Amino acid sequence: xxxxxxxxxxxxxxxxxxxxxxxxxxxxxxxxxxxxxxxxxxxxxxxxxxxxxxxxxxxxxxxxxxxxxxxxxxxxxxxxxxxxxxxxxxxxxxxxxxxxxxxxxxxxxxxxxxxxxxxxxxxxxxxxxxxxxxxxxxxxxxxxxxxxxxxxxxxxxxxxxxxxxxxxxxxxxxxxxxxxxxxxxxxxxxxxxxxxxxxxxxxxxxxxxxxxxxxxxxxxxxxxxxxxxxxxxxxxxxxxxxxxxxxxxxxxxxxxxxxxxxxxxxxxxxxxxxxxxxxxxxxxxxxxxxx
Length: 291
What we know:
Blueprint: H1 6-18, H2 20-52, H3 64-73, E1 80-81, H4 86-89, E2 95-96, H5 118-127, H6 133-144, H7 151-161, H8 174-181, H9 199-210, H10 214-233, H11 257-274
Parallel strand pairs: 1-2
């Protein structure tokens, strides 16, 4: 008689009946569902803890960085603590980066273009500028199949093709631009109000969630409450008094020469666009893409 666990036998039977690929897809869906459930539970626990400490918060309708940028624009907060560069696309101005050491998982709107990284993307943006630049870039690649390019353009096109796997004919997706230009946010001008921490509630919460005795809760939590009260009394305080800055991430980032050249091409165009009557000067594509 087999000593293998019943679950193992059932799993092997599923693979034989449905095929490994089907079972793999099913398991991936289950893992994704469990991951989302875990995120939801953590979010609810954090919200409960914020309420107990009397710290106001807002739940963003969609993108968190869009909501944070709106809060800055409304003057409801002094700044945003984030390492997500999307904050700048949403209009964020006062941004504090490199405060936290943890690296979170980043989810983008789309998968992007396979084979095109941020360096090549900067080069593409520096050449095909304006609101319809990406559509022009797509058309330029498609035109290569019809032999409509000069030799310089063909050389540059080949350089991109070496990195590019495929491009969707529907690229660029207008929903991505709309998500940045017209984000769904809560734009209420009502200011936030701090409340006094609920010490009894905090004791109950920590006892239920992490099995702390009241003495340990008081030892760890009372100093935090005193610091919060001090913060409320002070008219101005330095951020690094309450957070340990990750100094290792403050080191100057070494930008590649290709990115610097692409940015240099973008800046004159932006300055020229700001001058009335200025005409756009288009650089030959063969001088743009690094071969």
